[in-house]
Design goal:
The chain has 11 helices and 16 strands. 31% of the residues lie in helices and 18% in strands. It binds adenosine monophosphate and magnesium ion.
Amino acid sequence: MKTELLGSTPEQIEKAAQILKDGGLVGIPTETVYGLAANALDGAAVAKIFEAKGRPMDNPLIVHVADFNDIESFELVSEIPGSARLLAKRFWPGPLTMIMKKGKAVPDEVSAGLDTVAIRFPSHPVAQAIIRAAQLPLAAPSANLSGSPSPTTARHVMNDLDGKIEAVLDGGECEVGLESTVITLADGVPRVLRPGGVTVEQLRETLGEVEVDDAVLNQLEEGKKAASPGMKYKHYAPKANVVLLKCSDDEYIDYVNDHGGRGVAALCCDEDLSRLKNVKVISLGKRGDYSQQAHRLFDSLRRIDGYGDVITVYSRLPHTDGVGMAVYNRLIRAAGFEVIDLE
Ligand code: AMP
Ligand code: MG
């Protein structure tokens, strides 16, 4: 199959919308990462997403809408909880996904057999335009090959999926750079299953009590069922081996310099650049600026593989406050939970 790289003029968006109506797949920009979209109401179209990505069939997809009322009019959920209305008012459109009891229009392919469905209203103007042009809710996971870092440019999507999908819409670099925050409202106290651009602190301001699922910061225990199936896989990883160091800033510099050489890279902060010797360096941005680090993380992981000869990459274990929790969550999965504690 030839994959068309489209821009985001009204004609090109119309063309992509037609592909979606016909049951095809299109890579679309959102403010979080690029998504691989299909008609969420068509189980056969959605099944093609899993095939193109090599995604495990038990990992459900997020359904994207361009209006809160779409949730009801497309019968995506059986009931809208009051908490969903509160969150939508403050955070939609934006990088927050809400899980609710699923409605009768959602095929099993989308929910991976669960009785719940994940829904998001993205803020990216091109994402909204394509949803409106298709007049459909769109199921869309990240548009990468399963296991590799999520794509934050149209070029990343082409690198992973060229020849496997009908088209990619180029809408520029993704602003947030990490996938959405996922919160479940389907039972009991609202619980964050995946951290993202909307922080736990912000969610608590709106809802009061909000829990954070164990799997967000820790490795799932053997045999324990994942509330969010996506959290159980090694994920977001470059081909190089990511190792996280739990240490002070000075200890980080000393350790990496001691272990430097060919095949070693440092995923570091701007402040480290002049102090690291004899290793390849990629900075995620200013120390403590977790929004900037989130924005750059996946592109940096892909650039490490671009060097071709990096075997080990050392990074610091991030703090878990604010957007730092999302950076921590992605990095620790990229590292397969390998942390060296120097403290
Ligand atoms: P991705 O689209 O690649 O960002 O992946 C979607 C994420 O949302 C994965 O981690 C899924 O496991 C999670 N997810 C989607 N639907 C549900 C659901 N109904 N219940 C729990 N987690 C979900
Ligand atoms: Mg993904």
